[in-house]
Amino acid sequence: MNKRIPLFSVYMPKAVDRAILRTLHSGYIAEGEKVKELSRAISQYIGNPYVVPVSSCTMALTIAYQCAGIGRGDEVISTPLTCIATNIPLLQLGATIVWADCEPNTGMIDPKKLSLLISKKTKAIVVLHKDGDLARMNEILAIAKRHKLKIIEDAAHVFGAKYRGKMIGTLSDFACFSFQAIKHITTGDGGALVCKTKADYLKACKLKWFGIDKEAAHKNKNIWMDDIELAGYKGNMNDISATVGLAQMPFAKKIIEKYHSNGIFYDTLLGIKRDERNYPVFWTYTLLVEKRDKVMKALERAGIASAIVHPRNDRYTVFKKFKRSLPGVDYYSARELSLPCGWWVKKEDIKQYAR
Fold first, then answer.
1. Which member of 183, 196, 208, 258 is catalytic?
2. Whole-angstrom Cα distance, residue 263 to residue 80?
3. What's this model's pTM, rounded to 2 decimal places?
4. For 113-125, what is each residue's pLDDT tens digit?
């Protein structure tokens, strides 16, 4: 094989060229009409009106955690098998992270082990949909409802995915999407928080910009003369990023279908069966392999990129005080390997290197 197949590749339609120039020379490049347009486009796509575009998925998670009422001393159940962006904001809010063990075959939270982790201090459960596949949401939501806990979905890898026919972003209290450079849809860098209730949406609108909701009614023409009751962030998206996202949205369905189609093709070749009621979007195609280093070297020689995209968080010193026994995580993390699965990958390539 002469060509190299990367693990990630940025999709950038030609339509973005003129659109960016128009925005750059419009005289307004901060958060403005383009951000509003992108918010409406995402709302329409996933079927939820409560969309808050932000500067990153990390910011979306941070705001979701605050809207969920997470603060110092609260316990939050989360997974170590994720980007550190999922868990660092919990540290910064002073929460105690309780690591959930994972299903050894999926790397995602095992609902059967959740109830044992819940205490009087538990405030929320953070659910990662790993690498474009989907966690067992029905079971997790049922547990959360029984214990009156908030659910925050880290949906960085699953924009456009469906769980049993329902779009991700319509299931739980909060869903956090990433539009960072190498995601299905990109704004260069950016993200979106999607809320279940209008009250959380309105609070999130304030938290993403210094505690001020610019779209709300204001007593004074100069909004800085109004009172600020909530300490917020500088976490808004700008019109430049939103313009990139808007240029991509007409292609979203096509791009996501390609990821899905390639992932299902891998499944067919490898004899893997999934829940047919779901629509995963395979940000990468992640599988478990023995002798991983040997396999990675063989793939490299063949010109195929592979990686352990997100090493387990509990290996880092910053999380050392939360260490606990996690046999499922031990098994999965020692074997997981991600392969290219996106719009740039052809089925002929998959046939060649999935043997």
1. 183
2. 24
3. 0.96
4. 999 999 999 999 9
